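Progress against Task 2.4 (sequence-to-structure conversion) is shown through the following example record, which the project officer requested during the mid-term review.
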Amino acid sequence: MRRSLEVWKMGTVNYLEALKLQEKLASDRKALKITDTLLSLQHPPTYTVGKRETVHNLLIPDSELKAIGAELHYTQRGGDITFHGPHQAILYPIVSLRDIGLGARKYVEKLELTMIELASMYGVKAQVGRRCETGVWVDDRKIGAIGVRISSGITSHGLAFNMDPDLNYFKHIVPCGIADKDVTSLKKEADVELPAEEVIQEKLIACFVKIFGYSDVILKDKSKL
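Structure tokens generated for the chain above:
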């Protein structure tokens, strides 16, 4: 069975704008108005808290966020506090799990595999975390985060892979609620010269398409929206 995916390449998008867009697309996907859709983008510096509202894992007062050029937003995704910012590749899949025949756990495993495969292309051996450690790791250093929302079988939110973000932003949080662990990036771990970030983001999309088994891909440049 041939499966179609529409990919929106969006450039840098404000977090709240991306959130509203995901909500609209998820509603349209549920109503069968659109096919499975993948948003590929980056955010300005933003801390997000999941539905468990573990804001205690933010280590600086809200009042200081403006000074470091960051925003804080509360979301309905799973997972703990995390950071999104420039030089981090983000994928937000708006897909019907029923149509692709996956349960929630298998879906998350495939998101992890997407990032593991991308890292391997640049000679970096990444793996899933130990029990209760979500995301993707290089030894004890986290390189990719996952936080998803599933409503009526339709996914939103997704994954964030560190290409070369400013890792100092992670010092102000307990990333994903896991203390005493470092955060890393592809730039820090790879022994090879990396291509332009746009190329890495395109490779990440290609890994997603392959691992989730899409046969027809429609690319749309939405960066000028």
